[in-house]
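Hi R.,

Here's the chain you asked about this morning:
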Amino acid sequence: MDLKTMTYLVVGATFALYIGIAFWARAGSTGEFYAAGRGIHPVANGMATAADWMSAASFISMAGLIAFQGYEGAKFLMGWTGGYVLLALLLAPYLRKFGKFTVPEFIGDRFYSNMARFVAIICLIVISVTYVIGQMRGVGVAFSRFLEVDVATGLFTGMGIVFLYAVLGGMKGITYTQIAQYCVLITAYTIPAIFISMNLTGTPLPQLGLIGNYQPEGIPLMQKINQTIMDLGFKQYDGPVRSQLDMTLYTLSLMIGTAGLPHVIIRFFTVPKVSDARWSAGWALVFIALLYTVAPAVGAMARLNVTTTIWPNGVQEAPIEYAAVPQWFKTWEKTGLLKFEDKNNDGKIQFYNDKSDAMTTLAGERGWEGNELVKFDRDIMVLANPEIAGLPNWVIALVAAGGLAAALSTAAGLLLAISSSISHDLLKGILMPNITEGTELLAARISMAGAIAVAGYFGLNPPGFAAQVVALAFGLAASSIFPALMMGIFSKRINSHGAILGMIAGIGVTLAYIFAYKGMFFIKGTGLFPASTPEYWIMGVSPEAFGAIGALVNFVVAYFVSMATAPPPKEIQDLVESIRVPRGAGAATEH
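And here is the predicted structure, written out as tokens:
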């Protein structure tokens, strides 16, 4: 069976499964729409949380980043995984014990202020919209290649699927759909990795293959990768390049950003008891680890396969003729995500680091005019990997279904977070507190539909590749939501004035830094030079890493403003004490 037919069958079957689950688990009340009736088992919630978490950035983009960044890509693994430890230990059980539906609801009640709730709503929407752009980007990339449609058609199809199961089912339908999506995406990610590890190292476990020997030559795989890419003038694969300060802040920003993501936090409101929230986080880490421990091997092996495809005999010999490239290369060219430009008209693909002094000298000797692989989108690496390795069509189709499952599962969670913040926190909590449950449920579904439309628009006009856009969302969550939640749980002295000004200051300086260094240009010589280059960053701190500094600003402003103003009322201080006291997981802590 040809690839296109196989892909339509596999992807169509998974979409039918998601829609069927949505009809079976459709929400009939606000409790089911927002928190799945608080009846989800911790293991099931852990699996759904893993799917909610492992977005297009994890499935599609992370291995691509590792493939091109090498050692530097470790910050994503450390930051995103470490964030779940913070979430399990410091936030999830306490927020579940509080017994509300949403993050803004907690902030509004804890800081006894509708203004605090409103600021939290704005922060949540900014974070979630930024994050969902990356998911829609992933949907477009997967559709454009495997279903052979343009990006716009792919996005509209994905939007329609999400609309059916998210608007209909709410949190209840999304939860059970995400369980199915986790099974699809983890299978789709690991099977190709096993095949490729076997091909390159003879080891069926990719985690061990990464530290194993490269079969044809009997040398360590990492040594082979370093040798292959350094011969082309690229940096050492397993060597650091980013400054230690930026690497630390980037990892910290991802970590505390993870713990502050609203669409992840609301998953812990769906379990019956406080202890279940901890167990859910633990199970989520287990399910996430099944993918995250494989990702470094996928990235490293993909980088080697791509490089040896173009330079089958190394830089000492001539690169491959364009007419002789494998079919996968020409197929991905059609998507516009891969582009070759024959600069010296010799019919061969010169792919090398044209900023390397050694390679510049060699290029002059051989008559090269620069790197001719002028575009290789990082987001295609995982999706193209099975084709690059020559795996069967059914494996390639499965990867397409997995990429779509990863993007759609997280998009649904984000859209629910946006919807609930508008209908429950803004409408019910502030503007129209007396509306009926039926009206609130209708407003939630209308808000969801509107959020899907906005997400689709930004998906068609993304500001960067998936993981880069998502990293910015983490910085925004780190600088706004996380400090407010931490201070709300662990400090009785932080008052509404401190929390409000802290959130505004934290997200404000972070947004200012991001916009300044993503959009500004400096005059250099006779033209404009982009401010996004490291030489212009303050102390070498990248925009994606600035969330950690924004969080510090939030904490400092909240503390000093609170110390300079009246303490919270006694009932609020008693509330904080009751949330924090560990009284177990029995009936006393059920809500």
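One quick note: Confidence is low (pLDDT under 50) at residues 520-529, 584-591.

Cheers,
M.
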